Amino acid sequence: MKYETVIGLEVHVQLKTQTKIFCSCSTEFGRPANENTCPICLGMPGVLPVLNKQAVEYAMQACLATDCRINPRNTFDRKNYFYPDLPKGYQITQLNLPIGEHGHININVNSVQKRIGITRIHMEEDAGKLVHGENEDQGKSYVDLNRTGTPLVEIVSEPEMRSAEEAREYLNQLKAILLYTGVSDCNMEEGSFRCDANISLRPFGQEPFGTRTELKNLNSFRFIQKAIDYEVERQTNILDQGDKVIQETRLYDSDKGVTRSMRSKEEAHDYRYFPEPDLVRLTMDNEWIERIRKTIPELPEQKRKRFVTEHDIPEYDAGVLTASQSMANYYEECVALHPHPKIISNWIMGDLSYELKNDGREIEDCPVAPASLIGLLQLIDKGTISGKMAKTVFEEMYQTGKPAQEIVKQKGLAQISDSSSIDKLIDDVLADNPKQIESYRNGKETIIGYFVGQVMKASKGQANPAVVNQMLKEKLNQP
């Protein structure tokens, strides 16, 4: 490898407020086009914006959760550009005094820990949306301004990621942090979490950055990783041929797996920033900052470390279980009822996650409550059912919502542990297999697995395997 990849990410996150950042219009998603609008967010002459306090506090939470320093003085600026979905002809944002700076997120890729710096977090309003060629109007575009004025924070990373895997893990960790704090639903399909990636290559050992390209509006983590990988390969081929990479904005075509040029960007745009004259300077004192700090919950990284030390489970398990706060809460509720952390971890990451994925559900909608899962595990501990039978019972629990004990009783699935019942089954199997008995007694002890299988088959899987093993050995070792 001759070149080092340099990646920086800009993430736009829609804050989970009920109303917009400068007016009282609803932020509800999916309303009819242009219904959630008013003279303020439409930029009518003579109107004045009023800052949404909840949006500010959500932005403060995002800053504190990513270890950013909150600036005690904040100002808003006008970013001037003209586009059909920007009715005012400018966007209210923050340029010189953003709400937060100098934070970081820790990532782990291939068991290597790395800290990715966050340059800044600033508040701004969203633009509207252009709808192109819907229904029979293939040659027309329409403007939907429902999203105009929705409160955003833009989170800008340092250019410290060196692979698509690191970029994806950074986004995973950032999304988890934001979901834990509750400042956003991070729904990528609805545009609540949008990412732009800046990518450049430079020869190993070279300090100055290479010429970067910007990938816009990447809308899934899988596509983000694929787009970055493709762009790195594209730039590598250009440099290998002795050509120069052009600074430009590109879009990712997910159908063909390639990036395409959107517009050249040889010079930075002149947005003619100037201070927003209709909003006063925002001052944040220590009392306000500390009050917001107390609302920050235990974050994914802290919870992950606690799960490893407190529950004695592997790092991998802890990472999966803390990926969402709901999953972590489900796990801890289970452990409180049944103190066998690793067994519970295996069931949640295995059978439970498999069913949820197949059903397209999140764990919040899981039909098997923690108490129900523990009821199943307790039946295994008591020897009422085997681990193999438990998987069948669990599938029925997930589909019907019935408790394990009821399903076991209805289906007649209780495990046979009574030695007298098993004794007869073993005698019948041994009577039918004299040659296998001779092989065992001649030293081929592995054949006992065959006998166990035959007994389990005769019992329709209900005999207790441990009891079967023990009784078989006793009978086979008799002179």
Describe, in plain words, how this protein is organized in 3D:
The protein has 479 residues and is α+β, with helices and mostly antiparallel strands. It folds into 3 domains: 3-290, no CATH class; 300-411, no CATH class; 419-476, Arc Repressor Mutant, subunit A (Orthogonal Bundle), CATH 1.10.10.410. Helix content is 39%, strand content 20%. The radius of gyration is 30 Å and the shape is elongated.
Search tags:
single chain, 479 residues, alpha+beta, Arc Repressor Mutant, subunit A, 3 domains, nine-stranded mixed β-sheet, three-stranded antiparallel β-sheet, 15 helices
What Rg do the Cα atoms give? Answer: 30 Å
Helix run count: 15
| Structural class by SSE content | alpha+beta
Number of domains: 3
Low-confidence segments, given as residue ranges, are: none
The percent range for helix content is 25-40%
Count of beta strands: 16
* C-alpha termini separation: 69 Å
Query: How much of the residues is beta strand, in percent?
Result: 15-25%
Query: What is the residue-mean pLDDT, rounded to a whole number?
Result: 91
What overall form do the CA principal axes indicate? Answer: elongated
Largest sheet: 9 strands, mixed
Strand order of the largest sheet: 2-6-7-10-1-11-12-13-14
